[in-house]
């Protein structure tokens, strides 16, 4: 299913890389960030710790961030899409405002299609507290001006998906 996901995501313009360890993925992320200001959305504590000062832009200053970093809850193989589940509006903005979005995705979280996520989505939407669910497929694209396709106008121009195969 990882191959199907990768092929579909790349067809929509995402850059997909697979890693056998989180350390390798973090090293690749450092290359993507390449010294640019970065902000992280809600990440698992162990990932945030491994990032160290890599994501140093606070969420209230997203206008300075050139890279947004997230951790996807699931991947949809049929479309190469990411499911992001966030509870903080600023975290959601970290995946939409910077021109580059880098997302971690566990290979074990990839499902065949959207129907396979129906129980998960139902549980998330009925749980207490606010949730922001986003399904992202490739970099931002629009053709609302004279029907000319443009990448990166209403969101990130680049989407990098870092698949963690060992998790």
From TrEMBL:
InterPro entries: FTHF_cligase-like_sf (IPR024185), LUD_dom (IPR003741), NagB/RpiA_transferase-like (IPR037171). Residues 62-164 form the LUD domain. Signal peptide: none annotated. This is Lactate utilization protein. It comes from Geobacter metallireducens.
